[in-house]
Specification:
This protein has a five-stranded antiparallel sheet, sandwiched between helices. A five-stranded mixed sheet has the order 7-9-10-12-11. The protein has a two-stranded antiparallel sheet with strand order 6-8. About 55% of the residues lie in helices and about 15% in strands. The protein is elongated, with a radius of gyration of 59 Å. It starts with a helix and ends in a 14-residue tail after the last strand. It is α+β, with helices and mostly antiparallel strands. It is built from eleven helices and twelve strands. The longest helix is centred in the first third of the chain and has 78 residues. The protein has four domains: about 90 residues; about 100 residues, Beta-Lactamase (2-Layer Sandwich), CATH 3.30.450; about 90 residues; about 160 residues, Histidine kinase-like ATPase, C-terminal domain (Heat Shock Protein 90).
Amino acid sequence: MRRLIRLSNFSLVSAGWRATGIAALATLALAQAGDSLAGPVHEAVQAHAYAQWAEWTLGIGVAAVTLLALVLLWNVQLRRSVGEHTLQLEEETNRRSGVQQELKASQEMVQLIFGAAAAGIVMSTPEGHFLMANPAYLATIGYTEAELRIMDMRELTHPEDRVRYAGLRARMIAGEFSTFSDEKRYLQKGGGIVWVRVTVSLVQSADGQPACVMAVVDDITGRRQVQEDILRLNAELESRVSRRTARLEAVNKELETFAYSVSHDLRSPLNTINGFSQLLERVAGEQLGQQGRHYLNRIQAGTRQMGELIEGLLSLTNVTRDSLHPGTVDLSAIARQMIQELQDAEPGREANVLVEEGLSVQGDPRLLAVVLRHLLGNAWKFTAKQAIARIDFGRDMDVNGETVYYIRDNGAGFDMAYADKLFVAFQRLHSPSEILGSGIGLATVQRIIARHGGKIWAQAAVGLGAVFYFTLGIANISAAPDTL
């Protein structure tokens, strides 16, 4: 626009029009001379001058109109361009305003989370100078932000933990890893000590250089106290167990001594009593009479029962004292052999005995034979008054998938109200006049089963027989001697 304004009026007219304009101006100048020219000549010149002037004036008008049209076109284009740029500026302004609002909202949310976090959060420079911390962290250590700004953050770590923690921090800053966790102690304001678990992360700048260190801190003082209490209790328990084990070893030694004493010292007088009673029967048998014979029979029965008790005590002691020797045991074969021995001892008994095949387990062959001898012997003994005895030995599976072995009979049974006495030494559920026994057998069985990692129990009803169940938790079998 400025360039158009600077142009002269003639510059906007073509060269032909410019020549015409100049001629018209000259003719007009001659016409003004009037008097000096003759009349006809003067009129001719004046007419020509006016014609030239009109033509030139028309050219000037056309140029002016053209210039005005160009100015208007340029103005329209300028307005359109200004409008477009203004719209773009408004859109950019609105976008930036929205971004700023989102950024502000994000910053406010971060501040809210930072301040409301239950765990302590602290940020420091790679050199260990404080930057910022949330209220939870300040509450944990007891210092204010103003106090922390003039402190070296490394001073908060307990002296005994500083070397280890500083080493981990230095390795992280050196780039060996970007984060690590550690449990350490903080020195609180006022001299207190608090246990914390810190998760430390390295924040890097855009060029990959360490910018700051952020740590999330959880107060674990309560948990550490519980751990220390557990360790102390474990130490006390180990001490008590050691003392108890020593006492049990002494008791087992005394029991072993007692067993040998029973074996030697009691057997001798019993043998003497039994021998003299037999001698008395031979010498004065006819003179004793019916009552004397009854007394003599009671004496002999008492000595036999006492001998069985001694054997039972020795068996129970050996079960406790001897080491286990695990191996593969064919329970089915052992059961068949023992049933055969019982039938051979009482050939007149009628009994139906069913032994399941393939009952093979891992355990101590000698001790498991003792288990079957007692359980099958009891079944044989308690079915003595049945016209036809029925004894079954087999296995089943419980709801947990564990193998359960059982020995079932149709004998005398017992009252389940007294089942808790079954496996206690010298406890009997039937009187000796009903069924003979020492009261040691089931206690021995229970001890052997326990040493094999299993358990034993029974179900019964008076007059309807009994079932004894047992398991063998072979995975828990121990070769070491038992302790009472």
